[in-house]
Amino acid sequence: MERLQKVMAHAGIASRRGSEKLIKEGRVQVNGKVVTEMGLNVSHADTIAVDGVPITKEEKLYFILNKPRGVISSADDPKGRKTVVDFFSHVDQRVYPVGRLDYDTTGVLLLTNDGELTNQLTHPKYGIEKTYIAKVEGLIHKSSISKLEKGLEIDGYKTRPAKARIIDIDIKKNKSMVELTIHEGKNHQVKKMLKAVGHPVEKLNRDRYGFLTTEGLQSGEWRELKTFEVNKLKQLVKENS
């Protein structure tokens, strides 16, 4: 379910504010009935018309991008920097990222125009697993791994139990490689967790999102998700609800 004005905006009828104006003016019908109140949620099964003309329902699109460093995870950037949406300029529909990856973080990023699935995947209660590979300063010890797994106090909240393991330790360079799987998606969470145990992050890559990886995709490359992958994502949400 999505707000009526949002569906209208995605269909290219008008901006959200413009769509709200059309609704207030009594020019919008849902299943043959005029709607003038804000906040109505509609589904794909509902028929929406403006001035008696049915609107074309937007085809749902789902993509996976291997996000490069130095790209903003946003639909636009006031500073004019490259955004993940720029990789999809050829797509007629407006797509947007599912959550965010930091400017300097690489790896798995989903983009879609499915607002309902986006809200579910990014809501903490559904706990979709996200796995990161981090190159950190210092030689990490198993005691630090244990702290990461149990949860840490960061910015006034305690992180949920995570999965962590040491991938590699480079004694000469005084660096470590760590794999960390979390269920939340708070701002800079992985970096803050590793810094809290004394190992600031130098490089960070999101290796998996649920069951999805960037296998076969070079940095900056993308592909459309297969139908069974979309269905599997929706199933994950159901299982965790």
Task: Using brief descriptors, characterize the structure shown.
single chain; 241 residues; alpha+beta; Structural Genomics Hypothetical 15.5 Kd Protein In mrcA-pckA Intergenic Region, Chain A; Alpha-Beta Plaits; 3 domains; 9-stranded mixed β-sheet; RNA binding; Pseudouridine synthase; RNA-binding; isomerase
End-to-end gap: 16 Å
CATH superfamily of the largest domain: Pseudouridine synthase I, catalytic domain, N-terminal subdomain
Helix content: 10-25%
**Helix and strand run:** EHHEEEEEEEEHEHEEEEHEEEH
What is the number of helices? 6
Low-confidence stretches: none
Please provide the count of β strands.
17
CATH topology type of the largest domain:
Alpha-Beta Plaits
> Any idea how many domains?
3
Return the CATH class of the largest domain: Alpha Beta
Strand content: 25-35%
Question: Briefly, what is this?
Answer:
By secondary structure, the protein is an alpha+beta fold.
Q: Can you put this structure into words, describing what you see?
A:
The chain is of the alpha+beta class. Helix content is 23%, strand content 30%. It has helices spanning 4-10, 16-24, 115-122, 142-150, 189-196, 227-240; strands spanning 2-3, 28-30, 33-35, 41-42, 48-50, 53-54, 62-67, 96-97, 106-112, 130-137, 153-154, 157-158, 163-170, 175-182, 201-209, 212-213, 222-224. Strands 7, 8, 9, 10, 13, 14, 15, 16 and 17 form a nine-stranded mixed sheet that branches. The protein has a four-stranded antiparallel sheet with strand order 3-2-5-6. A hairpin with a 2-residue loop joins β15 (201-209) and β16. α1 (4-10) crosses α2. It is elongated, with a radius of gyration of 21 Å. The chain starts with a strand and ends with a helix. 25% of the residues are buried. The model has no long low-confidence stretch (mean pLDDT 92).
